[in-house]
Amino acid sequence: MAHHVGFFTYLRLKVIVTLLRGLLVVQGYLPLRRDRLLAQKIPVHRERVRIPSRDPARFIDAYLYHPPSPSSGPAPVVVNWHGSGWVFPLLGSDELYCRRIAHEASIYVLDADYRKAPENPYPGPLNDVEDALRWVGLQSSRFDPARVALSGFSAGAHLALVAASALRKSLAQLHLTIVAVVAHYPETDLSAEPETKTVPAPIRPHPHAMLHFFHDCFVPDKDLRTDPKVSPSRADPAEFPPHVIMLTASGDVFSPEAVELAAKLDDGRRTVVVKTLADVHHGFDKGAQRGTKEWDRREEAYEVVVKSLKDALQVS
């Protein structure tokens, strides 16, 4: 809400994000359309779901992708959150990924929305993540609460990592067992200044001013940015699930911190899979065209995810 920051600061953030959202509609149309056309060729049933939130009369929108041959009893489920910079309304932008995971791994995939900043800064988006997972735990006739995996892209990957660490213990008290997390090109440490984040050969890097803007929208209070619920790289490694799958891009300035977190978690107590896709940028898989390196790297990444999830969720 606006009261988390001063009125004029909020007004400035609101004006900028409104302009950026309009620009995204124009620039994102063709890439999202390419993915949507590919996705619709995958024979997976998609169901619209409205998940109750902790706020009276407010629901969280989601899409549930069904496996081709659902089992007769409770089945494993992957809960996914889309990328957004915590500000862009992009539910459905991961449809190709969700359909492929549901089809190729034969599991349910719940693609859940979350509130966006600056209108709803931290902890609003994380509360929606927690509410979606609590709802999953109540669907024991459909989902196996002992075989739940989390997934996300960019800001959604950040939320998935937080849910898989700082929130995991409280969710376990509801008999919801998170056994794996898949993080596609996440930012894991929001306490570090954007200017300190770099790679030897950056590709299409976000301007530092834009990263500051995203952080200011999502967590305007800088003192909170060292909290493990904001920066999952600062969470206790023991809080993470038995399987961690980290996918990064060599040209993404967030890659080093994601790889560093994966290395910290690779302590012999869990299975850690790290895949850095060569010569591609943050968000490389969205709108990739056949014959490009982005297309090839997307195939590599999604194949790793399918195999890893099948192993983690014990799907034959």
UniProtKB/TrEMBL annotation:
Residue stretches making up the Alpha/beta hydrolase fold-3 domain: 78-284
Keyword Hydrolase: yes
Any one GO molecular-function label of the UniProt entry: hydrolase activity
UniProt key word Hydrolase: yes
One Pfam family, short name: Abhydrolase_3
Gene3D superfamilies according to UniProt: alpha/beta hydrolase
The protein, known as: Alpha/beta-hydrolase
Gene source species: Canariomyces notabilis
